[in-house]
Amino acid sequence: MPRPIILTSHPNRGAGAVPPLNWGAADPQQRGPVIATLQNPATRNAIGTHAGSYALYRALAVASGQLRADHRPDFSNTRPAVPLGPFGAWGDPAKIVSLDPWGHLVPEVYAAELAAGQDIRPSIAVTRAHMNMPEVTQAMRAGRLAPDGEVLLPNGDVRVTKVAIEPVWWLPGVAARFGITETELRRHLFEQTGGMFPELVTRPDLRVFLPPIGGMTVYLFGEPEKLGKPETQVACRIHDECNGSDVFGSDICTCRPYLAHGIEACIEMAQEGGVGVIVYNRKEGRALGEVTKFLVYNARKRQEGGDRAEQYFQRTECVAGVQDMRFQELMPDVLHWLGITRIDRLVSMSNMKFAPIVESGIAVVARIPIPDGLIPADARVEMDAKKAAGYFTEAVPDAAELAIAKGRAL
Ligand SMILES: [Zn+2]
Fold this sequence. Notes:
The longest helix has 17 residues. β9, α15 and β10 form a beta-alpha-beta unit. The chain has one domain: 3-Layer(aba) Sandwich (Rossmann fold), CATH 3.40.50.10990. The chain is 31% helix and 13% strand. It contains 17 helices and ten strands. The chain has 410 residues and is α/β, with parallel strands linked by helices. The site of zinc ion (ZN) has 4 residues, from loops.
């Protein structure tokens, strides 16, 4: 007999209230677990589910008979490789609205609930690794970095702590960040996903949403245990994903060189006894997606007069309708989650990143621009356009400079 489909768009009559969730409570028991698993709809207190867009692959695995829908993870030995938190901001419902501060500690702080049979999943995982990048070994050869045997090894290996974070949105808090009502936010999330999550508009009792988008990865350099202490110096780069440059070395933008420069600054900071922090956000092509991004590249290179900085942002707007959809409003959350209250060296020129960090209450001591020698050949257009648009720089290019085509033709 076919299994009945259970609609979750309205509360089950007689099932009682959903498990309580007091967002921003400093005590994890008072806060309550985020329950976004699927086996028992009556126990869910969140909309959406874990793993972001990968939930669709899980559907394929179940549909094709390769995964049991009722599989429960065995969390043995999965606990964080280094302790992180708790920090003061975890108990502030306004400071963190887009991730679950207890997400990596689920098997620990909700052990009793798990033992009682509740299906609760971590939304954060913390591990350790070595990374090796050609830019780091080049910096060693050029004499800018020297191995210390702890952070940086003689073969160019860098010891890091890696943290994977899924988005968990507290809808009232996200709405407040954008200055809109929770009702408006819910309606647009529902409509713009093609009605993917009816509970957004039918279940005001569910106030947490796990959106089907990419999250972020944090790379920590130095001793993470030093985070949250006022004397600890911090170097930080907030990097938004650019697959073409970050992974494949495509030279139309400055992304990978800037990421590598940020990593170099993080290694230096760790060697000086501080902590380096790289936040890698899955926001491809200014969160417009890679298809839109490549369409814009073509429009830039085919326009009359060639690829030039004065037309850089307009070409994006012609195709996408906006210049940027990364919405840095939610970005500082991860810094508060890490206990950061001051960034001593922010490796970024972007005012779109600088302003929300400072407005969220984190002090920035120094901003570090990318050295000119690291800017790739075809990326001059992007760099000049950003400087003219108010990016942090010592020399703003004038109109005549911006009108010169500096990009390669198709
Ligand atoms: Zn890029």
